[in-house]
Design a protein that fits this description.
- 2 copies of one chain form a homodimer.
- By secondary structure, chain A is of the alpha+beta class.
- The first copy, chain A, has 2 domains: 35 residues, Single Sheet (Ubiquitin Ligase Nedd4, Chain: W); 137 residues, Nucleoside Triphosphate Pyrophosphohydrolase (Alpha-Beta Complex).
- In chain A, the strands form 3 sheets. A 5-stranded mixed sheet of chain A has the order 7-4-9-8-11, with helices on both faces.
- At the A-B interface, helix 1 and strand 8 of A face helix 1 and strand 8 of B.
């Protein structure tokens, strides 16, 4: 951020009165421009035979890897509405969203990811513009080595474990920056 | 938003290619300025005798009403770290944060509120700059008619009910805009 979104004047980084952190503050109109974490909402869509819907990513990051349908929550919607919208956009799939299942903090990229249990309502799905393919996977068919994001892996591992145990619980995790292989 | 935060040129509202919504897009550098919901994180701090810590608000909105310690989640922290930080800032109180207890959507103001169960670690608390008073309340002492926000009420109601039942569960709710009296 270099300019004030309200008046167009330059901003500077400084700590406002009664605040503990540096913020972008306008040098002309004094507006404080706060920056806060963003929410990723997504679904774990299960079909009636127990298979889970995954999407093959057509976009970066992680083009060509499998993921649960998920994306940035939008203004004006609830977390569950966002999870259903993302599933419709990425997989042209209709779901009933149930309770929050996975809550993952990624503080190094200022994200909170929220993945919800969901029931896939019909088999009339197909790839959205951000997907190359959309498929149902049995637990033993999950492409564990080709998953796009760690929260997807953690949520699926917890999901199958809870399903075997007969009770779904909320799972949380705080993620460190990934170690990049060289 | 009227000006591009990156280059200072005017922005216009339009729907970018492959998008479904109007966004603020820079008329000069084409940067898309997304706007997304913000997260409020807070704690339900319980002392060892079962009393709950509440703060009397010294600031608007709802000056002079009681609330759980809570506020905007900051970049670079986890949801639990944010809930602990807000408790320290508003009540000078140290807590151990436990699992997520209340998840409330307020889509009409683009907020998601997340309230966590917490253990108050000592009695050395005092009002922070945003609080007029900080006190411990037994269930029968809770000032139900002087609570600042509906999620605080809903979370406390669910908390006491779950505590009686002997099991804490995650509670969720989607709030409509409040009906203003008068």
């Amino acid at each position: 951020m270099r300019y004030c979104a309200d008046c167009g004047a330059p901003v500077e980084l400084r700590t406002p009165q009664d605040d503990h952190r540096e913020r972008y503050v306008c040098t002309s109109c004094d507006t404080i421009h706060y920056q806060n974490p963003k929410i990723i909402v997504g679904a774990i869509p299960e079909w009636e035979d127990g298979r889970i819907l995954l999407c093959l990513r057509a976009i970066e990051p992680r083009h060509g890897l499998w993921t649960l349908p998920a994306g940035f929550m939008e203004n004006g919607e609830t977390t569950a509405e966002g999870a259903a919208r993302e599933t419709l956009e990425e997989a042209n799939a209709r779901v009933a969203i149930h309770e929050l299942f996975g809550l993952y903090n990624l503080p190094y990229i200022n994200q909170v990811q929220m993945l919800f249990r969901a029931t896939l309502l019909d088999l009339d799905f197909s790839p959205g513009v951000e997907s190359l393919d959309v498929k149902l996977f049995k637990e033993e068919e999950i492409p564990w080595e080709q998953l796009a994001f760690r929260p997807v892996r953690y949520a699926l591992e917890s999901y199958f474990a809870d399903r075997k145990a007969g009770e779904f619980k909320l799972h949380s995790g705080d993620l460190e920056p990934p170690v990049r292989k060289g």
